[in-house]
Amino acid sequence: MKKDDLLTENEDFVLIPAEGEDAWAVRFLNGEFVETSIQYGAVGFNEVQDALTFNFEIKSSPDSELDVENMALQEHAGKVLESIIVKGIDEGYVKLHDKEDNAG
Question: Where in the sequence is the domain holding 73, given as residue range(s)?
Fold first, then answer.
């Protein structure tokens, strides 16, 4: 994905404190899932499929029938996560390491 294709924090999504946890959630600000908040769990990179892998849970949504099996939501969550990771690498607050590297 080109940097021009990345979503923009505070325009497309915003990071919010996760309720009752020492973690962050993401609230979508526009599009099909506006006002839906999710929290990412495990994030990794599948070298065989050359793809980012992750899981997430829905913290809140105006759509009571929305669930994590929704493919469009999964794709949107992936785009947001990619944008967060790219910005974090560029700004130095995301560090990557190999799975075997326990120093993390």
Answer: 3-91
